[in-house]
Each structure stands twice: as C-alpha cells, then as structure tokens.
Amino acid sequence: AHQIITEAFSREVITPGVTTTQDVSWWIRERFRELRLGNWFHPSVSIQRSEKSKNNGDIILRGDLLHCDIGITYLRLNTDTQEHAYVLREGESDAPHGLKEALKLGNRLQDILIGEFKQGRTGNEILAAALKKAKEAGLKASIYSHPLGFHGHAAGPTIGLWDNQVNVPGKGDYRLYYNTCYAIELNIRTNLAEWGG
What we know:
- The chain is an alpha+beta fold.
- It has 2 domains: 1-91, Creatine Amidinohydrolase (Alpha-Beta Complex), CATH 3.90.230; 96-197, no CATH class.
- The protein has helices at residues 2-8, 21-34, 97-115, 123-136, and strands spanning 38-48, 65-74, 77-78, 81-86, 141-143, 146-148, 181-183, 186-188.
- Strands 1, 2, 3 and 4 form a 4-stranded antiparallel beta sheet that branches. A two-stranded antiparallel ribbon has the order 5-8.
- Helix 3 (97-115) packs across helix 4 (123-136).
C-alpha cells in the first residue's frame, strides 16, 4: 500500500495545476488492477489547503496537502491505509514548518492511542483513556479506529466514530484481544501560521 501511494503522489502521476484528485484515485485503482490486487473500497484522494486557495475544486495545486485512503484485499485480508503528502510550491525544498509540526502532533496521538491498547479493554475504554491523555497533552483529537481482517471493518471493538467521540453502543463494548489488527484512524486539529491560523 505504501509503495502504491508513493508512486501515486509522485511527479510521474501528478502535475500541479492539471491533475485532479479523481485522476489520482483512478490511477491508484488501475495500479491495483495491474498488480492483481483487490480492493474493498474505491481509493479516495482529497485536498486540504489554505482558505485563500479553496476556489479551485479538485485540481491539485502547489501548496496543497493531499490525503489518500486506500484499502487493498490480499490473501483474503484487508488493509486500510491513509497517508498525507505536501505538494511543494515553486522554490520550496521541504514542507512548511507548521505542517511538519502538525504531523508530529498526529504521530503523538497515534502513540497515545496504541499505548491504550490493552487486552481485555473495550473499544469505549480505549477511546476514553486515549482522549483523556490527548487532552492532557493539549491535543484537539478525534479517534475513529476499527478492526481489520477478512472484512474491512472486521470483528472486534470499534474505537470511536468520526461523529461519536464519547461512547459507541454495541460495537464499542467489544473487548480487545491479542493477535488482532486495527486501522489507526484519527486526526488532530491545529492552526497553521503558514495558512493564516
């Protein structure tokens, strides 16, 4: 999955000002086909950009932060992989400092969440403990993780939902067991000085 995303976010696939998010989504889908990989949902590519640049629809521009979400099926098991990439502006050799700091905050939240994965805990217990630690760390966090396996949303505890950060009745009450796999899906909200925040 990571190699396909690296290819998809490369200069070979994306020409800023020309390529659309749909072009990249379909490139990923075709790459799956070439590699004889199944997928359990259509790849998605989206754009985050500063307010002053939001009027160009889904055409990828320099200075955009790209996000993708892909799910490969291989040997009957499913992945759920999300990554970000920054499209350098003319004259830039690296992403802006604020974006790199935001990534560090997101990585910190990942560490907090997986640190709360303890056998026997319910998804709701993991969610509450992780959100408490995130708040103590000053993070504006949202967690919406789920088990993976023979199904993209497999058997096991749901750990938050994008629209429910308190308690997920039923699926959030399932317990975590060893030898299970999870999509670590979450986000943090922060202001970026480079985007006027």
